[in-house]
Amino acid sequence: MFFIYDIMRLVVVFRDRKIMSFSMKLRKVIYNLFFWLISIYAMWLILFKLATDFTTIKIIWAGPIAGMAALLFAALKIHEVLFNKNENEKLKEEEKELKKGFFNIQKKDFFLTLLSSIVACPLIYKFLGASVAICFLVGSIVVYIASFLSSLVSLNSSTRANLAAKNSSKEFHKTILNGGISSFLIPVGFNLIAFPVLYFIFKDPSIIMGFTFGTCLEAFLLINSGEIFSNAAKILNLEKLQAKEADIIGKSLNAKNKALDVAITLIAILTGTIINGLVVLNLIGAFLPMTLVAVGVFCTMIASLIAKTKFLNSKLSFFTSFVVAIALYLGISYYLIEMVFMPDYGLFYPVATGVLTAIVIAIAGYFNLRIKKDELQNYKKEESNARSYASVCVPLLIAGFSALAAFVNAGGMESYTAGFWGLGLSAISILSVIEIMGAISNASDIKDGALLNLENEEEKNIISEVSPALTMYGVKSKVIFSICSIYACLLLVAGLVTTINLEEVDSLNPFVMYAFIFGAGVSILPVGLVNGSFIKAVKKIFKKESIESLDVVKILSNKGFLGSILPSILVCTLPLFSFYAITKLFERALGLQTLIGVLFGAIVAGGVLAIISAAKKISSAESSNLVSNLAVKLTVLSVLLVCAFLMPAI
Fold first, then answer.
1. Which has more confidence, 615 or 125?
2. Is 343 exposed, middle or buried (0-12, 13-18, 19+ CB in 10 A)?
3. What's the confidence (pLDDT) of residue 618?
4. d(CA 179, CA 454)
5. Is residue 36 exposed (0-12), middle (13-18) or buried (19+ Cβ within 10 Å)?
6. Given a cut of 60, is residue 466 above it in pLDDT?
7. Which of 147, 148, 243, 517 has the fewest CB atoms lying closer than 10 Å?
8. Helix, strand, or coil here: 453?
9. Residue 14: exposed, middle, or buried by beta-carbon count in 10 A (0-12, 13-18, 19+)?
10. Is 411 helix (H, G, I), strand (E, B) or coil?
11. Taking a C-beta distance cutoff of 8 angstroms, is the pair 629, 621 a contact?
12. Of the candidates 315, 300, 246, the residue with the CA atom closest to the CA atom of residue 102
């Protein structure tokens, strides 16, 4: 393939621009044909070869196959973004400055990865074993690489979208979607490759939890750092303090942060579902979720192609892509469950329940968050805040009913483990819907970055044509994703209860009641620390009389680096501190009861805060959504990992 490309480059040197244009189109057709041949073969392999041999561990390769297809698709789409050369000298210079700032931030991210590995790996090796430490290290490295590539793709897409806007709205629409889907699929692809490979090597969910913990801890560090940087840059740019470049970089970090959070939630759901699934249905219980994840990835790629169609306007193309992808996901899931894996057991119902839940929450969110055009135009912010708080109730009620329905349909009344496994299938289905919408949400951040670099009003009008649809899908996907994060944490808690053989929790015990409050504080504390860090960064810039844009980037990246460390330490240690303190003072059983209380308090408080902030459009609220989601997952994972290995010795 690369040989063909080199031959074509030699030919076009001696031809005019028309022939060059033709060769570029031919090259694009060849690349697309190559990708779709591989993708069709991969899907056929999953559905008709691996799925029909589900009694062996071979089905686990559905994950890596889907992950490699996702990375190949991302490479193809970002190649299209970078294909058009930047011949605008002004944009070239701005792009050069952006790259300098970007790599300054990446140095800090590398140090964060190195620091967390140096501190955590020896401790995990000493107390939990070499295998868990290896998995932790692999998880940290995978997340760093995925974070670097995803944010680089987002940044490049923002700069190239400027060129596209000079041509047409269709070209701009295509560029931001290519960048959005690429930056979104990269973390998903890397994690889908690494997680099943490690499971194939160690064949023990307890060991693989080291990978899940490593990915979550590293993602939490990087996301906190990115949120501190991007929110501070946004405020500084609004105040006209030489922060335009920093704000553009911040938009690319926002897109990367969302993609990382989805990828980590996916791995957390798989971990919890596999722990319960091995108890219920052995290999089928472990690997059916992996197969559904693979189907969701393929449906996401198909949705992204429909969303770029030239024959529909942006809003209609987004809606059409969503409907087609969901229909495909339901059809393939029905085939896998009812005709291949477990016919006549009713296991398709949790899957359908998850999809329906996501759709209903999206519709409810759309109607709740609309601002009516009436005489209260001067009070849009107040009305928006009121609607965002009021809209929390509906998603929670829908999600609660959906969780109960999925639990019961999977046999939860006879076996709690089976019920939570069914809840895992439902959560994976919700996450598949989020994947389909996630690329559009990422495209919104790329669009915002491109907007900062445009001065021509006509070009800004081109961007405004797709802005409403992008914003609508972005807000709805964040609300649904917050629900999905709660499901992921519930699955991990169910895995913890299964691991430590805890039969019941006395909710009237005063220690447990206190633990609920303590857990709520654990999940909210990181949000306050992160928001406080970016406010301090802004104040530091304000104190300077004059400052260059690159210096702004350096100062904000330093603040992001330092401000991400303390929240991560507190989230990992506070729940365990509460357990060990009560265990030493009283008894182990009371310590376990208190620990579960801490986790449930964190899930409820962090989940509600995430849902509220997902619906609000102010800087601190946007950061609260991602920080809350990951803080709760990291809290539960740190407890689950320690309990899986150390509980018998306590």
1. 125
2. exposed
3. 44
4. 18
5. middle
6. no
7. 517
8. coil
9. exposed
10. coil
11. no
12. 246
CB 179 within 8 A of CB 156: yes
Residue type, 22: F
Choose among 260, 290, 137: nearest CA to 188. 260
Task: Report the range out of 22-31, 331-340, 435-444 with the highest average pLDDT.
Answer: 331-340
C-alpha 164/C-alpha 81 separation (Å) is 9
Q: How many residues would you count in the chain?
A: 650
Give whole-number Cα distances, 35 to 30, 47, 202, 433, in Å: 9, 18, 32, 23
For 144-170, b where at least 16 C-beta lie within 10 A, e where not — what string? bebbbbbbbbbbbbbbbbbbbbeeebb
Q: Distance between CA 175 and CA 554 in Å, rounded?
A: 29
**Measured CA angle at 254 (ends 92, 211), to 5 deg:** 115
Tokens 């961007």 sit on residue: 463
Nearest Cα neighbor of 243 from 555, 618, 608 is 555
Over pLDDT 90: what percentage of the chain? Answer: 9
Cβ count within 10 A of residue 16:
8
Report CA Rg, the chain: 24
DSSP states of 303-317: HHHHHT-TTS-HHHH
What element of type H or E holds 36? helix 17-45
142 pLDDT more than 90 = yes
Residue ranges of the alpha helices (H) in 60-88?
Answer: 62-83
Residue 13 has pLDDT above 60, yes or no: no
Two tokens at 223?
């996301």
What backbone torsions phi and psi does residue 129 show, to the nearest 5 degrees? 110, 160
CB-CB contact of 627 with 634 (8 Å): no
Confidence label for 222 from pLDDT (cuts 50, 70 and 90)? very high
Q: Can you point out the beta strands (E) in 384-481?
A: none
Q: Which helix (H) or strand (E) holds 49?
A: none
Burial letters for 549-559: b for 16+ Cβ neighbours within 10 Å, e otherwise? Answer: bbebbbbbbbb
Q: For residues 40 and 47, is the Cβ–Cβ distance under 8 A?
A: no
Output the six-digit token pair for 105. 């931030």
Above 80 in pLDDT, residue 637?
yes
The pLDDT of residue 619 is 43
Cα–Cα distance for residue pair 160/319, rounded to 1 Å:
25
Write down the domain spans for the chain.
54-371+380-649
How is residue 395 written in tokens? Answer: 């998603």
Residue type, 464: S
Handedness of CA 632, 206, 588, 491 (dihedral sign): positive
Instruction: Give the count of alpha carbons within 13 A of 496, CB side only.
Output: 27
What is the residue whose two structure tokens read 């590995």?
Answer: 117
Give helix then strand counts, H and E, for the chain.
20, 0
- Give the separation between CA 47 and CA 51, rounded to whole angstroms: 5
DSSP-assigned states of every residue in 508-560: TSHHHHHHHHHHHHHHHHHHHHHHHHHHHHHHHHHH-SS--HHHHHHHHHHHH
CB 417 within 8 A of CB 498: yes
AA identity, residue 182: S
For residue 509, what are its two tokens?
Answer: 């015990």
Cα(591)–Cα(603) distance, integer angstroms: 19
